[in-house]
Design brief:
- This protein is mostly helical.
- Helix content is 70%, strand content 6%.
- A 3-stranded mixed sheet has the order 1-3-2.
- α1 runs antiparallel to α7 and α4 crosses α7.
- The longest helix has 41 residues.
- It starts with 10 loop residues before the first helix and ends with a helix.
Length: 229
């Protein structure tokens, strides 16, 4: 099995990702058990925000799974997981509002959201095939200088995935900021309930930060491997 000392650089990133995932899980479970004073379900929160913002061409739908919530701009649909759609918890309100934050980004032409959407195809290719190209270059040493070309192409492809993760950060932080402002201004949550929603969204944000950092460390690792070649 091929092993390079540069793999050790990934360990801090792996630890950070594990910590972020556990934090999200613990925070979500805590506030999923706290019912909001108004008792609005996630679906009602989303529909209320969209209506009050004058957005009438976006539907609110339920999807299977846990924490599978997302906004699909191509279908003009906010899709909420089963545990959010029908729940009246603080966590459900925060998540539903966050997805509506993405709707507002779409409606108002938020630049980073458009950039991220344009990067999706390239980023998927880069994340899936970039490391494979690097490994192929390492094992096909008999090809001489051509093996280095494989490595360089792999690194370039993977770098596109890094760019996607970097652009994702402002998109997610902005959506959360919009969400917290909306649920406060519209009175969806009351008093300290807003603090609970903030904690849920802050914990979720750390998963995006951890993913970006881990991806960056992977890029550094690939560059170190190329340096040895």
């Amino acid at each position: 099995m091929f092993f390079h000392p540069s793999y050790l650089i990934l360990i801090p990133g792996m630890i950070l990702m594990f910590w972020a995932q556990q934090r999200v899980k613990a925070t979500y479970e805590k506030y999923a058990d706290m019912r909001s004073s108004l008792g609005m379900t996630g679906a009602q929160v989303a529909k209320t925000i969209l209506q009050r913002m004058g957005i009438h061409d976006v539907t609110v739908e339920q999807v299977a799974g846990e924490l599978t919530d997302h906004y699909d701009p191509s279908a003009k649909a906010v899709r909420l997981s089963e545990s959010v759609y029908a729940s009246s918890s603080l966590a459900a309100a925060a998540i539903a509002a966050h997805e509506c934050g993405h709707v507002l980004q779409d409606v108002r032409g938020y630049q980073f959201m458009n950039i991220r959407a344009s990067l999706v195809p390239v980023a998927n290719i880069g994340a899936n095939f970039g490391p494979l190209m690097v490994m192929a270059g390492l094992f096909l040493t008999s090809l001489g200088s051509l093996s280095v070309v494989f490595i360089n192409i792999g690194i370039a492809l993977f770098a596109s995935a890094i760019l996607f993760h970097i652009v994702t950060l402002p998109v997610e932080f902005d959506a959360s900021s919009r969400a917290l402002k909306l649920i406060d201004e519209l009175g969806i949550l009351q008093g300290e309930e807003n603090l609970g929603a903030r904690k849920v969204l802050n914990a979720a944000a750390w998963t995006y930060v951890a993913t970006a950092i881990y991806a960056a460390l992977q890029l550094v690792q690939l560059l170190l491997i190329r340096g040895d070649r």
